[in-house]
Design brief:
Elements (H helix, E strand, L loop, with lengths): L3 H10 L20 E17 L10 E16 L5 H14 L3 E7 H4 L1 H6 L17 E9 L2 E11 L3 E9 L27 H8 L4 E2 L18 H12 L5 E6 L6 H23 L6 E5 L12 H7 L1 E6 L4
Parallel strand pairs: 8-9
Antiparallel strand pairs: 1-2, 2-6, 3-4, 4-5, 5-6, 7-10, 8-10
Helix pairs in contact: 2-7
Length: about 325
């Protein structure tokens, strides 16, 4: 039997690997009302993708060529936090099949020099606070070769700012939502949480989210109501000082690297849905994936493999 601590340790030790096959579209959602401030689309262009911090007069980078999409948003946020905003977006990027190449914060990126060596839309479409910005670059395999992505997050006193660059893959623009859809689902923290889920989490025991619906081979959670997520959100609202880790699992069929990547994508997809739908703090929920390493049933039958494909909730041990 694998203990909770062993599960978490194994999850943190595994190396992210890119999935095989076609990757899902990236559909960003934001924690507040978002206004698109700029859009640039080219059928063929090149862009510099930072792979390290600016130092010694140089910016480690690679030059990618392909169809280009560059877009920026202003996000109406009270006391915007670049850390929380980037964490939410990072989870969505990973859920869409990207592998992070490099990420950094302000001075660790190289400060002023990094900002002006990086492809950025001009003010006021994209505002950069040189004392508080974050950068991420990532890639994933595509049908026509590698696909690249960069995210740049900064803020003003009243608003958050996000720039997304995508390059490679198909020429059509990737579908992106700006957060103008339905408001987050309210949580009734005083409502009764189902006894089984609440009792197990109160005791620090793991519980499987049995009703989640992932298409075969997909890391994207179907957009529908799930009683388990509503119950988990209610429990987290009742316990604001608690935190959980969502751990994705797969069966043993297929390649190990693809299974590890798929398990991470599924857990990250559940985390992103919980945060966006219920407006939960990003710091309260983490996600990991451990592929086929912790089966709960025999893997030789369809029924056993179905049981092994799951997302599990583990209460994060307090320090």
């Amino acid at each position: 039997m694998v203990s909770n601590i062993q599960r978490l340790t194994l999850a943190l030790c595994l190396i992210w690997a890119a999935p095989a096959g076609a990757a899902p579209d990236l559909r960003l959602s934001f924690p507040a009302q978002a206004e698109q401030t700029a859009l640039r689309s080219e059928t063929m262009d090149s862009v510099q993708i930072a792979t390290g911090a600016y130092q010694g007069g140089k910016l480690p980078s690679l030059r990618a060529v392909g169809p280009l999409r560059q877009v920026a948003w202003r996000i109406a946020m009270e006391r915007p936090s670049t850390l929380q905003l980037m964490q939410m977006l990072r989870d969505q990027v990973v859920a869409a099949g990207y592998q992070v190449i490099f990420d950094c914060e302000s001075d660790d990126c190289g400060g002023f020099d990094f900002r002006f060596a990086t492809e950025i839309l001009p003010e006021p479409e994209m505002h950069i606070d040189l004392g508080d910005f974050r950068y991420l670059s990532a890639q994933r395999p595509g049908v026509s070769g590698p696909e690249y992505l960069t995210l740049l997050v900064s803020r003003s006193p009243q608003d958050g700012f996000v720039q997304l660059i995508q390059l490679g893959g198909v020429a059509e623009p990737v579908a992106v939502t700006s957060g103008e859809g339905p408001a987050p689902t309210p949580i009734n923290a005083s409502a009764n949480v189902p006894n089984d889920l609440a009792a197990r989490l109160d005791q620090g025991l793991p519980i499987v989210l049995e009703d989640l619906d992932f298409p075969s081979g997909s890391g994207t959670l179907e957009d529908q109501d799930y009683a388990s997520l509503t119950a988990l959100a209610a429990w987290l609202a009742v316990h604001p000082n608690a935190s959980v880790t969502l751990v994705g699992h797969t069966d043993g069929s297929g390649g190990l690297a693809a299974n590890l990547a798929l398990s991470k994508q599924r857990a990250a997809s559940v985390r992103a849905l919980l945060i966006s739908r219920f407006n939960l703090p990003t710091t309260q929920i983490a996600s990991e994936g451990i592929g086929p390493f912790a089966p709960r049933s025999e893997d030789q039958t369809p029924e056993g493999r179905s049981k092994n494909r799951r997302v599990e909730v583990i209460v994060t041990p307090t320090q």
